[in-house]
């Protein structure tokens, strides 16, 4: 990748050893960090963002905290809500908001992994079994001091009818992409000595965290075409998740981005024996 962040669209969902799926309930911008309001410079052509995809207000956090968002609307078709947490220690955690107490992607300074939490492992795994499901190497820097931490893809075909979730006032809502489209959320991790990073053709920022360590987390959103080939791959993953689940759940899958091997997650919608959106 170059400094313009030619971020990958294609995702290789490496199920099994390198990835898995949840089977239990459970345009231009640049940012260097420091003072986000001063360091962000936006230059968007008038026709670069369709009116139906105007992003919500950017979440700006100092020290530590959580960025929360979802696709759709609380009362209509929607995705699960997602959370990116930045800790004072520099650790970053990513997971569906309702499942973060059970399973999460952890981007630690020393290691990246998808794992059950200690509490979930205590009730779901035999004593002594490793609660880590997948591991990733740190990606190469895409610009001085910046790494691609993870991507989260939400295809239109994964959206489901509204479901119960508390405290939705904490969630920022992105408009629904059209049929045959998806929204892709990119999590970038910045080191304390990072340079100013420029990204292209995104539809907007989700949020930014200036960490107490001097590091940074930047979440940005893209709209992509989700063509027939990608939907066919998506349906295959859905069916595998359905076969692995004894009850209907709102699932997601994970694997690796083709370009650099970074963690990639994708919404699956409802999966299980009675799921209506699995074809």
Description of the structure:
With 279 residues, the chain is mainly beta. It contains 3 helices and 20 strands. The strands form 3 sheets. Strands 1, 2, 5, 12, 13, 15, 17, 18, 19 and 20 form a 10-stranded mixed beta sheet that branches. It has a 7-stranded mixed beta sheet with strand order 11-10-9-8-7-6-14. Strand 19 and strand 20 form a beta hairpin. The radius of gyration is 18 Å and the shape is globular.
Q: Helices and strands in order, then pairings?
A:
Blueprint: E1 11-12, E2 20-21, E3 28-31, H1 36-39, E4 41-42, E5 59-63, E6 65-71, E7 82-86, E8 92-96, E9 103-107, E10 112-116, H2 118-124, E11 132-136, E12 141-143, E13 146-155, E14 172-174, E15 181-190, E16 197-200, E17 204-211, E18 216-225, H3 228-244, E19 249-257, E20 263-271
Parallel strand pairs: 5-17, 6-14, 13-20
Antiparallel strand pairs: 1-19, 2-19, 3-4, 3-16, 6-7, 7-8, 8-9, 9-10, 10-11, 12-13, 13-15, 15-18, 17-18, 19-20
Features:
279 residues; mainly beta; 10-stranded mixed β-sheet; 7-stranded mixed β-sheet; 20 strands; 10% helix
Question: What gross morphology would you assign?
Answer: globular
Summed over residues and divided by their number, the pLDDT gives a mean of: 79
Instruction: State the assembly state of the protein chains.
Output: single chain
Poorly predicted tracts of residues? 1-51
Give the topology string: H per helix, E per strand. Answer: EEEHEEEEEEEHEEEEEEEEHEE
Strand content bin: 35-45%
- Count of folded domains: 1
């Amino acid at each position: 990748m170059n400094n313009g962040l030619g971020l990958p669209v294609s995702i290789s969902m490496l199920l099994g050893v390198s990835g898995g799926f949840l089977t239990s309930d459970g345009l231009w911008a640049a940012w260097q960090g420091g003072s986000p309001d001063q360091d962000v410079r936006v230059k968007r052509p008038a026709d670069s963002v369709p009116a139906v995809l105007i992003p919500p207000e950017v979440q700006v956090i100092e020290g530590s905290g959580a960025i929360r968002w979802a696709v759709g609307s609380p009362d209509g078709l929607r995705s699960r809500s997602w959370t990116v947490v930045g800790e004072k220690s520099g650790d970053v955690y990513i997971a569906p908001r309702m499942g973060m107490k059970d399973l999460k992607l952890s981007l630690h300074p020393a290691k990246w992994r998808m794992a059950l939490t200690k509490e979930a492992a205590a009730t779901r795994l035999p004593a002594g079994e490793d609660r880590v499901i997948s591991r990733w190497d740190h990606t190469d820097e895409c610009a001085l001091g910046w790494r691609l931490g993870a991507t989260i893809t939400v295809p239109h075909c994964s959206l489901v009818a509204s479901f119960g979730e508390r405290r939705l006032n904490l969630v920022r809502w992105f408009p629904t992409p059209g049929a045959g489209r998806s929204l892709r959320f990119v999590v970038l991790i910045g080191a304390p000595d990072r340079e100013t990073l420029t990204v292209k053709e995104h539809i907007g920022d989700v949020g930014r965290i200036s960490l107490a360590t001097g590091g940074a987390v930047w979440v940005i959103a893209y709209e992509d075409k989700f063509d027939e080939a990608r939907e066919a791959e998506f349906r295959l993953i859905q069916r595998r998740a359905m076969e692995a689940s004894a009850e209907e759940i709102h699932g997601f899958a994970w694997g690796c981005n083709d370009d650099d091997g970074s963690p990639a997650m994708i919404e699956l919608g409802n999966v299980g024996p009675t799921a209506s959106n699995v074809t």
